[in-house]
Structures are given as structure tokens and as C-alpha cells.
């Protein structure tokens, strides 16, 4: 709507404006024309502030005669107001006209950016600058809901229309809408603003410290995890410097892992992990502990003087700092920090990997190697040093007295120890030896010794000699004396002990004087009392051998040294022992192979005569006196045995030695082991061979037991007939006897179990020696004719025994003292039982080609019925039995040799 222009009247001027009121929207342009009637000199425009308008880029004033145009480009809200147009004439009179300019503004959003970012936890102000004319009404929406209706007092719309969010957090992140409305015009507009909440970094360390060992080529990885929004950037720092990837360091996983390779001691220390994003940064420290094996870095040899002081220093490095100990190699004694030796001379002090071993009043025994050992829980290191002690010369030997005689060269040794080495010389008086133009005095060196060789030619060569040793520590002297030697004095207190048949042990006291020269042997002279000839025994010992038994001797002793033989001692008389029976042998045994058992025999005192044989009571076996063992065979498994062994020489028999032993259990033989790997044909062949072997063994056994083969025995059993030799077979069966092989000295020993020993014969008579144990009988060795064997019983001929054995058991027995003929060839030992007396049989009836071996426990001691005397002729023999008269009825002599051939 336009109003009519105002009219200003003056005498001369009249001013009008084309429009009196104008409405513009912000941003539009408009011009106004001012016309002056009269003769104006100037036409000016004034803005609402009363200021004269001067043309500018946006506001332009143009004058065209009596007209003036005001143009406003791109109108702004500040341009609103009353504008005046004023005209002035030459007289200075003015006239003016006005125009009202109204400007309104549409909804306009200014400086409203999206997205807008905030840090979590702060009070956020989301900016939305919206203007209009008239002023707009502004509201905020979040997730299609006005924030003023949200039940959270953290949200508020400020007076400047911005949105305030107190203590904003990540959950508040999203799109917010700023909406403006002008109610007068029904105008509405909005802007969507993205709100981003940034979260500061937060570092998480998997470990606050890491351990590694240096100089082992090890690598270690440090870990650093960080959270935040946006994701933080991670970097590592050491000693304030950024760590960049190279040969030493490797970064992985967006720098979350730092790997340090080839760990060294210098790598130890703190490492900083830094995490940074828009919201801030965080840093944390992790520590790398590098363990370093101990290393000794200072240790050197030391030298000091005797009775002085010494300080040994050992320094070591490592992480952790190692502990240092000292060890003296000569005796293995260990010294550690704070310790002192028992005598207080040695003390160890130290700290921080440095140790010093202090020695005062140094002794020669302190010299040698010292070991320094540095140790920690990582490991240890050891080095050695040597303490050298310098000392004045000292003489090794305390022997200063020597003896010799004219014409006998002697060496006098001067051995010197010194550090540093000493110069040594021999002197006599003021003369340094050897003196020129002398041949009986010489000196020469061997190692640490300076030897003076003297060949005395006269009395003047005997006397004192001096050895002088000098080094930079000092000089020492030692005097030696050369005396004239003599022969030893006589031994005394001669006595003879431990006499035997052929030896005598001589004891005596050494001579009071050895003459200055060591005694190198004693001369023992011995002779029989009846003889005039002395037998000289040069011996270092004191035992005389090869003497005759039961003989009286005289003995004297003299000492002999380098100069000669001394005087004899007083004569001592002694007599050797007569020859006697030997001492019992020492025996021990051990299991042999299979059912055998080895008895080892150790000869004791032989009584002065060689051992001829050993009599083993297990079976009357005589073995050569030169043998040292016997094998007992055909023994029973798990059976206990007692063995008696008696030694015999030409003088008689020793007391028996008893030995008990038990056989082991029968070993288990696993047949699978035998037949493992054999084919079917081989197994069948072995079975057939075993069967044939059993038949052969059975046949041979039947022959020896019943005097007939297997088939013949079966025939007899079926047909009830007996051969002509049935009597002999029965004798063998009933007597349980075994015979020596023709021409053999080994008996065939038959074994019986306990049950077999008490079985009866077919005719009802019990076997000989019921309940007895196995005994073995061996023939005596060939001896000259004489009385029966010592300790044996009468030999009995086989036919005579057969005739007697054919009678019922109660009617016969064997006399243990029956006579033996000189031609007997067997010594029967060991029969025991119950029964009637059996008359003695003449030895002439003995069949020498068939010596009998009976199986019994001990000596034949049958008790005749009715308490008859043991030595009597049989009176109860059957009519068919006739026995010749005995050749001799005297009991056997135990001290005389066996007879027979």
C-alpha cells in the first residue's frame, strides 16, 4: 500500500518523494525518487539515523537536475526506518519529504553447521541460529520427539534458541532437528543437525611390566590396547622420543603391539604408550625388566710378599646385581661377603657387584688359585686369578747329617724353595766350592737342588759344609755335616716265634747304632745243633724257611749296611715242630649247572706234609690233595644237604669240616621258548625223538634194576616166569644197590626220595636202611698192604651178601667190625638200620671186579636183636649159608693207611 507524498510549502521550494511507505523483504532491492520544485541548489538523502547518505556499493544516491534517486540493493533488516530527502536553495532555505521503509525477514538459518561434535562428559550446546521478522518460534526434536517432552532434565532450549545437553554421553549421539515458525505468516522451516559425541581414549595394558633376558637373542612384545571414539591413534615413546619401525622395533596391529628384537641390557626401562583422538589423549607406561647374566669384568692376578697384605678384587655386572663369593682352590674353602676365616686373617667386603678379599699376615699356604663366582637367579659366571707370594729362600730337607767313608762317594743335596728363584752355592769356610784343581769335590744342579758330591780321600774331607741361597727377599744359610760311617752294632733280644714243621719266625730288636749308614738288610745264619756248618740267609724279612721237621737249630742275626756287616747277636736255639695231621680245610660252595653243586676247598695248615687227598663224606670220595673243589651231582631240587670234608696226609686225618647247603627250586622251562619259530614238521620230529629217548632210558633202567629189558620185564609180568638171573635181579631190586662201572673209579649213585626209601620189596621185606639218606662210596687209593681203611667197615663179597640178603630180613645184619682181607678193593662206608646180626664174611670171598656200593645215611651200625654184642659170629644164619672164618677180628685202626690194591 502506498501513501500520498507529503507536501512541504515554502516560498520558493517544494519537495516530494514518489512513495511515502514501502515494505521490502530482506534481500530485495528498491529505489526512491525525490523531486524539488523551485530552484534548489542541493538535494540530499538522510538515513534513519539522521546521517547524510553517501553513495556506497549497496546504497546509491543519484542526482538528476531537480530529482534525486535513492537505491537500496539487497535490503537488510538494519535498513528499515524513515529516510528524508532535503532540498536547499540559494538562500539557504530547505524543504524535505520522507518515506518509511519497512523490511521483514523470512525464516533464515545462519551459521548452523552439521555435524556438531562434542566431548563426552561436557555440557554441550547445539547451535541453531534462525532469524525472521518477526522473531520466529524455535523448537528441537530428537527421534521425532520434542526434547522438552523427554523425561530428562539434561535437555533444555536456551534463550538464543540453541539446545543445551548437560553431561553429554555417547548415547546422546544422533540427529537433532531445529525447527523455526513465524505464526503471523504461517512460515516454517528446519535444519537437521548431526550431533557426534567423541569419547577420549582409555588405554588398557595387558601387563605393567615385562621380563626378558639379555644377550640370548630373545625378542619380546609389549601390548597396548585403547578404546575411544573416534578410534584413537597409538604411538610408542622411549626416553621422550617417538619409536619408529626399524630393524630393532616392529609395530603391528595399528601400533598396538611393539616387538623389541635381540634384547640387550640397554633396552631396559619404561616404554610409553600414547593414544590420541579428537576427544583427547591418554598415555600409560609399561616397564621392561631386562635380566642380564652375571659377567665378571674385573679380576687380575696379584703378587705380595710373605707376612705382608693382599687385596683381591672381583667386580661383576648383571641384572639383578649378582652376589660374589670367593673359593680357595687349594682346599675348597669358600669366603662370602661379611665372612672371616677362623684365624681372622681373611675377610671379604663388597657391595653393588664389587667384592674384595683382604688377606693380612700372608702365609705361603695362601698362595695359589682363587675362584671368583658371580651368581644370580639368572645364572653365574666364574673366573680365576692367582695369588703369587714372594718369600726368602727356605731349605726343604731337615737332613743335615751325612755319613761316608774314605773312597765312598756321597751326594749331599741342598734343595731350596724360593720365590723369586734363588741363587745357591756351596761353601766351606771362606771358599766357594768346588775349588779349582780338586777332583774329589763336585757340584751340579738338578731342578731345585744343588748337589755337592764328595769322595773323601782323607780325614780332612769330613766336617762342616755350608749351603747359601739368596734372592731379592733375603738370604738363608744351612750347615751340613759329613761324618765318618761305621758298621752297625749287633741286634739283640733274638727270639723265635710261630714255629711250624718247616718255618720259624724270628723276632729281634734293631741295633742301637746303624753306623751312620742305613741298614739295607739283615743276615740270618742258621744251622742244626749237631752240624758245624752255618747256612747264611740274606733276607729283608725275618722268617726262616725250608727247615726240617722236629729238628733243633741254632740261629744268630747280624745287620749289614753300606760299609759292611756288624757283629752277630747272641745265638738262640729252637726246635721245629714234628709232622702231624693237617688242620681242617676251609670250604664254601655255590650252585653249579643243573643239579650239581660246587664245593670249593681252601687248604689250611698241612701239618708239615703235603695234602695227599680230601675225603668228602657225602660219598666216600677221595680227591687229589692238589684239587681245590669237587662237584656234587645228581642232587634233588630244594633238598637240604650236609657235607663233611676231611683232609688226609701220611700222618692221618684232620677233624671233619661241616658245610650245609640247600638246592634251589627246579627252574621253570617254558615250552613256548623251545618251540617258538619251529615248523609243524620240526615239532613232530622232536616229539618222536623224545618218545624214542624215553623208551631207551626206560629200557636201560629196567635192565639195571631188574636185569632185563623193558619187553622182557613186561613178558615176565604177564607170563609169571623168571629167567635164570632172577635171583640177581631181585637182589638188585631189594638192595637198591648200584655198582661201579668196570674199570671206573666213579660210583653210579642211585637217588631215592623219602617215599622210595621206606617201600618194601616184592617179598615183603623192607629195603636196606629204611629212611636213610643217600651215601656215596669211593674206593681207597692204592696203598701198601695193611690193616683195614681208617674209619671204614669190612668189605663183603657180592655172592655172600646175596646169600644173606635172600633170607628174611630179621635174620641178618652186618657186623661193623668184621675183618678185611689184604686183597680187599673197597672201603664200605655208612650203613645204618635195624635188624638181626649178620656174621662177618672173609675178605677173600670178595669179588674184586664187583665192589659194592650201598645207599645209606651213615656208618653201618645195625643193632642185633636181644642186645647181643656188635662183634660176634652169626648164629642165626640159614642152613644154606656158610661163611668162612674171618681173617682178623680186630677193629680197624684209624691211624694206619688203607690196605688193598
Explain the overall architecture.
By secondary structure, the chain is mainly beta. Among the domains are: 16-105, Immunoglobulin-like (Sandwich), CATH 2.60.40; 110-198, Immunoglobulins (Immunoglobulin-like), CATH 2.60.40; 207-291, Sandwich (Immunoglobulin-like); 300-391, Immunoglobulins (Immunoglobulin-like); 492-575, Sandwich (Immunoglobulin-like), CATH 2.60.40; 586-663, Immunoglobulin-like (Sandwich). Strands 18, 21, 22, 25, 26, 28, 31 and 32 form an eight-stranded mixed beta sheet that branches. Strand 33 and strand 34 (380-395) form a beta hairpin. May play important roles in selective fasciculation and zone-to-zone projection of the primary olfactory axons. This is Neural cell adhesion molecule 2. GO terms for molecular function: identical protein binding.
Structural class computed from helices and strand pairing: mainly beta
CATH architecture of the domain at 300-391: Sandwich
Strand content: 35-45%
Largest sheet: 8 strands, mixed
How many strand elements? Answer: 61
InterPro entries: FN3_dom, FN3_sf, Ig-like_dom, Ig-like_dom_sf, Ig-like_fold, Ig_I-set, Ig_sub, Ig_sub2
Transmembrane segments: 674-697
Biased composition (Low complexity): 874-895
Membrane topology: Single-pass type I membrane protein
Summary?
By secondary structure, this protein is mainly β. It is built from six helices and 61 strands.
Topology, pairings included?
Blueprint (H helix, E strand, L loop, with lengths): L13 E4 L3 E5 L4 E8 L2 E7 L12 E6 L2 E6 L8 E9 L4 E11 L3 E3 L5 E4 L4 E3 L2 E3 L5 E6 L12 E3 L5 E3 L8 E9 L4 E18 L4 E5 L6 E4 L1 E5 L3 E6 L2 E2 L6 E4 L4 E4 L8 E9 L2 E19 L3 E4 L4 E10 L3 E6 L5 E3 L9 E6 L2 E6 L8 E8 L4 E16 L5 E4 L5 E10 L3 E6 L2 E3 L7 E6 L2 E6 L8 E9 L2 E11 L7 E6 L6 E6 L9 E10 L6 E5 L3 E2 L7 E10 L3 E4 L3 E4 L10 E6 L5 E6 L10 E4 L2 E6 L4 E4 L7 E10 L2 E2 L3 E6 L8 H5 L4 H27 L3 H10 L6 H10 L2 E2 L14 H4 L18 E2 L20 H8 L46 E2 L48
Parallel strand pairs: 2-8, 10-17, 18-26, 27-34, 35-42, 54-60
Antiparallel strand pairs: 1-3, 3-6, 4-7, 5-6, 7-8, 9-12, 11-15, 13-16, 14-15, 16-17, 17-20, 19-24, 21-22, 21-25, 23-24, 25-26, 26-28, 28-32, 29-30, 29-33, 31-32, 33-34, 34-36, 36-40, 37-38, 37-41, 39-40, 41-42, 43-44, 44-47, 45-46, 45-48, 48-49, 48-50, 51-52, 52-55, 53-54, 53-56, 56-57, 56-58, ...
Subcellular location: Cell membrane
Pfam families: fn3, I-set, Ig_3
Keywords: Cell adhesion, Cell membrane, Disulfide bond, Glycoprotein, Immunoglobulin domain, Membrane, Phosphoprotein, Repeat, Signal, Transmembrane, Transmembrane helix
Amino acid at each position: 500500500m502506498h501513501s500520498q507524498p507529503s507536501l512541504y510549502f515554502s516560498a520558493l521550494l517544494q519537495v516530494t518523494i514518489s512513495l511515502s511507505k514501502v515494505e521490502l523483504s530482506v534481500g530485495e532491492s528498491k529505489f526512491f525518487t525525490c523531486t524539488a520544485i523551485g530552484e534548489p541548489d542541493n538535494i540530499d538523502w538522510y538515513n534513519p539515523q539522521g546521517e547524510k547518505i553517501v553513495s556506497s556499493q549497496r546504497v546509491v544516491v543519484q542526482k538528476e537536475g531537480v530529482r534525486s534517486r535513492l537505491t537500496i540493493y539487497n535490503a537488510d533488516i538494519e535498513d528499515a526506518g524513515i529516510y528524508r530527502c532535503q532540498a536547499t536553495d540559494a538562500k539557504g532555505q530547505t524543504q524535505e519529504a520522507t518515506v518509511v521503509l519497512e523490511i521483514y525477514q523470512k525464516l533464515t538459518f545462519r551459521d548452523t553447521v552439521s555435524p556438531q561434535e562434542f566431548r563426552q562428559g561436557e555440557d554441550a550446546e547445539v547451535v541453531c541460529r534462525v532469524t525472521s521478522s518477526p522473531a520466529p518460534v524455535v523448537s528441537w526434536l530428537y527421534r521425532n520427539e520434542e526434547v522438552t517432552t523427554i523425561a530428562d532434565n539434561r535437555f533444555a532450549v536456551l534463550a538464543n534458541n540453541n539446545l543445551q545437553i548437560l553431561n553429554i554421553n555417547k548415547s546422546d549421539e544422533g540427529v537433532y532437528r531445529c525447527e523455526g515458525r513465524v505464526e503471523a505468516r504461517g512460515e516454517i522451516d528446519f535444519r537437521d543437525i548431526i550431533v557426534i559425541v567423541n569419547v577420549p581414549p582409555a588405554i588398557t595394558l595387558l601387563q605393567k611390566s615385562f621380563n626378558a633376558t639379555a644377550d640370548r637373542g630373545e625378542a619380546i612384545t609389549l601390548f597396548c590396547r585403547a578404546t575411544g571414539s573416534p578410534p584413537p591413534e597409538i604411538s610408542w615413546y622411549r626416553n621422550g622420543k617417538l619409536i619408529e619401525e626399524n630393524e630393532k622395533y616392529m609395530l603391528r596391529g595399528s601400533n598396538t603391539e611393539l616387538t623389541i628384537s635381540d634384547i640387550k641390557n640397554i633396552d631396559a626401562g619404561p616404554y610409553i604408550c600414547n593414544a590420541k583422538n579428537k576427544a583427547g589423549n591418554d598415555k600409560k607406561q609399561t616397564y621392561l625388566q631386562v635380566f642380564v647374566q652375571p659377567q665378571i669384568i674385573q679380576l687380575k692376578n696379584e703378587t705380595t710378599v710373605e707376612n705382608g697384605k693382599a687385596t683381591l678384587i672381583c667386580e661383576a655386572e648383571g641384572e639383578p646385581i649378582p652376589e660374589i663369593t670367593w673359593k680357595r682352590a687349594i682346599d675348597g674353602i669358600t669366603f662370602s661377603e661379611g665372612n672371616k676365616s677362623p684365624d681372622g686373617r681373611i675377610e671379604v667386603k663388597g657391595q653393588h657387584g664389587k667384592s674384595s678379599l683382604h688377606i693380612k699376615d700372608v702365609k705361603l699356604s695362601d698362595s695359589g688359585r682363587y675362584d671368583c663366582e658371580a651368581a644370580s637367579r639368572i645364572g653365574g659366571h666364574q673366573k680365576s686369578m692367582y695369588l703369587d707370594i714372594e718369600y726368602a729362600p727356605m731349605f726343604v730337607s731337615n737332613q743335615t747329617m751325612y755319613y761316608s767313608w774314605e773312597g765312598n762317594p756321597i751326594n749331599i743335596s741342598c734343595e731350596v724353595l724360593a720365590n723369586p728363584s734363588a741363587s745357591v752355592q756351596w761353601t766351606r769356610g771362606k771358599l766357594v766350592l768346588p775349588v779349582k784343581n780338586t777332583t774329589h769335590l763336585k757340584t751340579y744342579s738338578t731342578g731345585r737342588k744343588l748337589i755337592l758330591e764328595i769322595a773323601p780321600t782323607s780325614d780332612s774331607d769330613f766336617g762342616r759344609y755350608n749351603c747359601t741361597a739368596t734372592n731379592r727377599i733375603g738370604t738363608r744359610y744351612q750347615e751340613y755335616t759329613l761324618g765318618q760311617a761305621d758298621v752297625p752294632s749287633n741286634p739283640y733280644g733274638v727270639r723265635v716265634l710261630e714255629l711250624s714243621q718247616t718255618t720259624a719266625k724270628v723276632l729281634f730288636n734293631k741295633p742301637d747304632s746303624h753306623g751312620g749308614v742305613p741298614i739295607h738288610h739283615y743276615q740270618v745264619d742258621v744251622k742244626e745243633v749237631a752240624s758245624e756248618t752255618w747256612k747264611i740267609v740274606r733276607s729283608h724279612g725275618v722268617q726262616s724257611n725250608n727247615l726240617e721237621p722236629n729238628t733243633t737249630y741254632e740261629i744268630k742275626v747280624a745287620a749289614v749296611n753300606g760299609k759292611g756287616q756288624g757283629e752277630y747277636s747272641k745265638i738262640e736255639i729252637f726246635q721245629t715242630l714234628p709232622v702231624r695231621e693237617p688242620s681242617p680245610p676251609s670250604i664254601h660252595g655255590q650252585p653249579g649247572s643243573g643239579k650239581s653243586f660246587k664245593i670249593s676247598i681252601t687248604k689250611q695248615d698241612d701239618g708239615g706234609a703235603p695234602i695227599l687227598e680230601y675225603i668228602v663224606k657225602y660219598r666216600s670220595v677221595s680227591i687229589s690233595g692238589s684239587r681245590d673243589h669237587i662237584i656234587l651231582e645228581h642232587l634233588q631240587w630244594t633238598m637240604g644237604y650236609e657235607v663233611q670234608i676231611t683232609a688226609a696226609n701220611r700222618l692221618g686225618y684232620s677233624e671233619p669240616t661241616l658245610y650245609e647247603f640247600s638246592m634251589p627250586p627246579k627252574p621253570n622251562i617254558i615250552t613256548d621258548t623251545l618251540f617258538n619259530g619251529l615248523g609243524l614238521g620240526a615239532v613232530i620230529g622232536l616229539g618222536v625223538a623224545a618218545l624214542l629217548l624215553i623208551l631207551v632210558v626206560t629200557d636201560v633202567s629196567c635192565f639195571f634194576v631188574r636185569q632185563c629189558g623193558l619187553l622182557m620185564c613186561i613178558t615176565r609180568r604177564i607170563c609169571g616166569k623168571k629167567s635164570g638171573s632172577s635171583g640177581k635181579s631181585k637182589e638188585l631190586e631189594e638192595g637198591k644197590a648200584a655198582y661201579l662201572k668196570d674199570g671206573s673209579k666213579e660210583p653210579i649213585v642211585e637217588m631215592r626220595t623219602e617215599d622210595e626209601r621206606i617201600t618194601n620189596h616184592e617179598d615183603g621185606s623192607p629195603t636196606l636202611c629204611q629212611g636213610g639218606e643217600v651215601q656215596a662210596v669211593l674206593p681207597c687209593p692204592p696203598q701198601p698192604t695193611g690193616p683195614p681203611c681208617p674209619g671204614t667197615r669190612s668189605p663183603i663179597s657180592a655172592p655172600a651178601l646175596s646169600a644173606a640178603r635172600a633170607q628174611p630180613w630179621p635174620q641178618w645184619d652186618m657186623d661193623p667190625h668184621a675183618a678185611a682181607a689184604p686183597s680187599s678193593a673197597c672201603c664200605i662206608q655208612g650203613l645204618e638200620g635195624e635188624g638181626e646180626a649178620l656174621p662177618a664174611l672173609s675178605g677173600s670171598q670178595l669179588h674184586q671186579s664187583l665192589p659194592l656200593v650201598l645207599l645209606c645215611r651213615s656208618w653201618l651200625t645195625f643193632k642185633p636183636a636181644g642186645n647181643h654184642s656188635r662183634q660176634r659170629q652169626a648164629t642165626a644164619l640159614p642152613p644154606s649159608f656158610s661163611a668162612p672164618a674171618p681173617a682178623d677180628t680186630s677193629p680197624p685202626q684209624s691211624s694206619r693207611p688203607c690196605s688193598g690194591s
